[in-house]
């Protein structure tokens, strides 16, 4: 595994503009769109060096070889633009109005529903990860986006958190045994409300870090800039992550960050504050998300339903830069 300074990561999440789910964007793959929209990213943000692709197991199981070929083309496009790739293999983030797709508890918990199948990830990993296990274009394999996305505390969820953790450990061990030459991690839910106390939250983060070669976090600051108590808590959380990284001698990436809004000025202020605090602690930065998309939270209301996060895009549907979002280049 190469030695890498993760504080140098300046990236973005990328969902192509055409589809409203990761399944659509990979099943009906449009390489010219990937190239166009990522090139716009390099044009507006010269420091852009890492891209997080949200893959689709749903697209893979329908046409495995086609999906693998599409992934290879997407890697070539990123490489041609000087971008390292963080492929996210599974997704556990969902919403009620414009769901991105991915996995559900039915897929993971034995007896929970008809969708359960033990070791269902193996064919997917054997082809997608196995064919690229020494590929220098890939920086980190991200096992899953936002597992543990619960609306209740961990201690109110019965055996479910232990089952989900065991599933992640099983996949982590499987990939490490291939072996892969890249870093392996996952992108957990930020944990707001998952524990009763800050100490329990820290203990939970350390438990998750056991399955991370690089510590990956989603540090969204969602309050107004005038909320000094929220800022104090946010900075306390970032200090805790930094201390954990130092203790374990592991780098840290914010694989999602910079909360959204339909109000450009609010968003610009949020980006500046968030990126200032992350850079101060030498945490790699990958805001969500680069480009307008029909995927949830990446568009204006005229393109579809808009939820609590508002609009997180940096680049508009017409390819122009969203007002004031060159603030990214300050960092």
Strand order of the largest sheet: 1-2-3-4-5
User: What is the averaged pLDDT score?
Assistant: 97
Q: Helical segment tally?
A: 10
Query: How many structural domains does the protein architecture include?
Result: 1
Poorly predicted sequence stretches spanning 5 or more consecutive residues:
none
Secondary structural class:
alpha/beta
Terminal CA distance: 27 Å
Q: Please count the beta strands (DSSP E, at least 2 residues each).
A: 8
Strand-and-helix sequence, N→C? EHHEHHEHHEHEHEHEHE
CATH class: Alpha Beta
CATH architecture: Alpha-Beta Barrel
State the main characteristics.
globular, alpha/beta, 331 residues
Describe what you observe in this structure.
The chain is globular and about 45 Å long. The chain has ten helices and eight strands. The longest helix is centred in the last third of the chain and has 21 residues, at 228-248. The chain has a single domain (6-330), classed as Glycosidases (TIM Barrel, Alpha-Beta Barrel), CATH 3.20.20. Helix 2 (31-44) packs parallel to helix 4. 37% of the residues lie in helices and 11% in strands. The two termini are 27 Å apart. The strands form two sheets. A five-stranded parallel β-sheet has the order 1-2-3-4-5, covered by helices on one side. It has helices at residues 22-27, 31-44, 57-62, 64-80, 105-108, 122-129, 160-176, 198-209, 228-248, 264-280, and strands at residues 11-14, 50-54, 84-91, 140-145, 183-187, 215-217, 252-254, 284-285. The protein is of the alpha/beta class.
